[in-house]
Predict the structure.
Amino acid sequence: MAVAKHRKTWTWSYTLLGVIMGLLLPSVATMLELALGQRHVTLSNVLWAHSHPSVLWLMNLSPIILGFLGRAVGRRQDNAVLLNHELARRIHQVSDANKALADEIGVKAELEEQLRHSQKLEAVGRLAGGVAHDFNNLLTAIIGYADLLSAELGPNDPKTEYAQQIRGAGDRAAALVQQLLGFSRKQMVSPRIIDLSAVLADSRKLLERVIGEDVRLDVIEPDRPLHAFIDPVQVDQVLVNLVVNARDAMPDGGTVTLRLAGVGVSEEECDSRPEAKAGDYCLFEVSDTGTGMDQTTLDKIFEPFFTTKDKSKGTGLGLATTYGIVRQNGGFIEVFSHLGDGATFRVYLPLQIAAVDESKPASRSAAKGGRECVLLVEDEDIVRALASKTLRDSGYEVLEARHAGEAERIWILRSQDVDLLLTDIIMPGRNGKELSEVLRKDRPDMRVLFMSGYDDDLLSRHDVFEDRPNFLPKPFTVDGLASKVRQVLDAEEPSVDQPSRQTRTNSAPTLTPAP
C-alpha cells in the first residue's frame, strides 16, 4: 500500500509539473522571440506571433509533450522507490531467515550433544548392568570371607590387618559398582518423600569431614521445609560428590557454599533449559572459590570416566553419577564456571507439596541366630557356600539348592520344616520370584527373602518388586545376611486362610519340577 501511494505521488507530481511548464513555455518563448526581434513588445506583436502556425503548434503541443515526459520521469522515480523498498524487504527476510536458521542449528547441535551424552550413559549402563551380577557375586564372597577371616584371627593377630585390607578393597569395589549403576540410572533405590532440610542437617558433619580442615563449608538453609521424592542415600551421594569436586578444585584451600532453596521454573525459562520442565523445584547449589573450568572441560564434565584429576585421585564417575541420580529423579543440573572464578553446580529436584512420609524402614535386628530351617537357593557356588556357613554358624538348619528344580525336589521332602526361603532372583530355569509363588501355593505362611546382584531395571522387568518383598542386595556382609534373615523371621505373621504349620497334615505337596 505504501509503495503504491509513493508511486502515484511521484507520477502525478511530475505530470503536473510538465503540464505547467508546457503552458508557460510557449508564452515565455514568444516573449523572448519578440524581445529579440522587436524593440518594443506590444499586444499586437504578441497576437501576431500567435498567428503563425509553428508557434501555435508549439504552444498547443508543449503541455502534452512535457506532461508525458513528466509522467515518464515520475514512473522511473516510482520504480526506483519500489525497487529500494523491495530490496530492503528481501534483505530483512533473509536476515530473519538466517537468524532462525542459526537458532535452529544451535538447538539441533544441543539436542545432538544431549543424544550423544545419553547414548554414552546408556552404553556404559548396559555394561554396568551386565557385569553387576557377576561382579557383585564375587564381591559378596570377597567381603564375606574377609569378615569370617577377621573374626577367626581375632583383633590381636597381625594377619587381621591383611583381612581388613581385603575387606576395604571389596568395599571400594562395591562402591564403584554402585557408582556405575547410579549414573546409568540402574541403581536399586527406595525413594520416598523426605525433608531435604533435615537430610542437609544430618549430612553436614559428614561433609565437613570430607572437605578437610583447610576448606571452609558455609551452609545456607531454607526458611521452610522442602520435600522431594528421592532415596535419602542418593541425596547423600549427590552432596558428597559435589562437595568433593569443589574441594579438589581448591588445592590451596577456600570456601564451599552449600545452599538449599525453593525456586520456580517458568515455561519461558525452559526454552533455554532443554532438560527442564516448568514447575517448582528444590535447589541444591554448591559453589566454590577454586580454579574454575574452561568451556572444553564444561562440555565433558558429566561424561563417564572423564576427569582432570590424577588417576590416583579420581575415577571420573562422581559427577556422572550425580547427573544420573538427578535425571533418575526427574530433575536437572546446571553448571556455571570460568577459569579463575570458581564453579557453581545447581541441582534441581521436583518439589513435593505432600507431607513428609514419617514412616521409617524397620530397624535392623541384631546379628543373632536362631534354630529355624532355611531353604537356600543360589546358583553361584561361592556365594551359596558363604551364605550356608554364615547361617549354620548362626544356629540355623540350612537346606541347599543350586536352582529352582533342585529346590522343589527338596521341598517335596521337607516342606513342613522350612521356615524361610532365601533365594537368588535371576537363575537358570525358574527365577526366584516364580519359585516362591510355586512354593507358597502349599505354604502361604512361609517367609521369603530375595537376594540379587542385578540392577533395579532388570528386576523390575521380572516384576520382582511389584509387591515390595523382602530383599537383600549383593554384595552383602555376613552380619548383614544374619540380621536380615532374623528380621524377616521375626516380622509379623502374614495373614493366611489356610491352617498353620503345626496343624497342617503331613501329606507331600504336588509340584511340577522346574527344568
